[in-house]
Design goal:
globular, alpha/beta, 8 strands, binds magnesium ion, 8-stranded mixed β-sheet, 274 residues, binds adenosine-5'-triphosphate
Length: 274
């Protein structure tokens, strides 16, 4: 199963991505977490120290790897067919959570220095990685929308759009949801986060209804999450907290709604329900 976690900056994407990845790994899935944020910090949430996390060379900055994968002999022409399995084997970093971490790094868009070759490698990674029944890939995406235009999320089975009740977060969530559907992502679900009142719960759930999306969970505001952020503690310390209990329920919903191929089922109507 390939799951992408998207949404506006600061809504809780890394909390959700790290939580899901850890819980998948704990259930015995071989789990790869991909940090696609230009300022990567998923590693710390998965138990690496800040020093360990910052010493990882992101794939996009690994010029030798990018070159060797995409070289055709013609300048400006990139090979689109290359194997990606060895990238996981050689560059994924084990973390104390049991999740293998792959740091993608920044892929600048066209106009800000062409990194098309790096982008090609990253897109192919997500698209062509074959994820078996007992494997999971969780992608912690860059905040906002721009990356969706680069097709990074093409080939994912499930897009979790994280939002709080803030009007601006909901607006971003609306556009992310639309773009994910337009790129053919079969399941686009909403995950409410930092929900602190009945009112906020109502706002997020009517948003999900309005956009025709399934609300897969509503994670409460939880001081333990804030505290773990301050002390740079991993998601594992959140075990048993209200926030992590809700992420566990979300994991179960995702797993119970999967068919034999390990992919979330599409309803006969093609609607975004499991
Ligand atoms: N449910 C919650 N309860 C309390 N604090 C939370 C909750 N979820 C997230 N936070 C806090 O909000 C901040 C942002 O969370 P997080 O880093 O997961 O968001 P993000 O969407 O990944 O941000 P960015 O866009 O910067 O990558 C962190 O300080 C985190 O501890
Ligand atoms: Mg983040």
């Amino acid at each position: 199963m390939k799951i992408a976690v998207a949404g506006k900056g600061g809504v809780g994407k890394t909390l959700v991505a790290a939580g899901l990845a850890w819980l998948f790994a704990r259930r015995g899935f071989r789990t790869i977490a991909v940090d696609a944020d230009p300022t990567p910090n998923l590693g710390v949430s998965l138990g690496l120290t800040i020093q360990e996390a910052s010493s990882i060379l992101p794939i996009s900055e690994n010029a030798d790897l990018i070159e060797s994968k995409t070289r055709t002999g013609f300048p400006g022409v990139y090979s689109l067919t290359f194997s990606v399995e060895d990238i996981i084997r050689n560059y994924a970093v084990p973390t104390p959570s049991g999740v293998q971490l792959l740091v993608m790094g920044t892929v600048k868009s066209m106009g800000s220095g062409c990194t098309c070759a790096a982008n090609t490698v990253l897109r192919s990674l997500i698209r062509h990685l074959v994820v078996d029944r007992d494997e999971a890939l969780v992608l912690d995406m860059e905040a906002g929308l721009e990356h969706l235009g680069r097709g990074t999320a093409e080939g994912v089975d499930l897009m979790l759009v994280v939002t709080d009740a803030n009007a601006k977060s909901l607006e971003t969530a609306r556009v992310v949801t639309r773009m994910a559907r337009e790129s053919g992502v079969p399941n686009v679900f909403i995950a409410g986060n930092r929900i602190d009142s009945e009112d906020e719960m109502r706002i997020v759930s009517s948003f999900a209804q309005e956009t025709g999306s399934r609300l897969i969970g509503t994670i409460p505001y939880d001081h333990a999450v804030m505290k773990a952020g301050i002390t740079a503690d991993p998601v594992m310390v959140l075990e048993g907290t209200p926030a992590m209990q809700e992420i566990e329920r979300m994991t179960e919903s995702i797993l119970s709604g999967t068919d034999n191929q390990g992919k979330p089922e599409k309803s006969p109507m093609g609607k975004n329900t499991i």
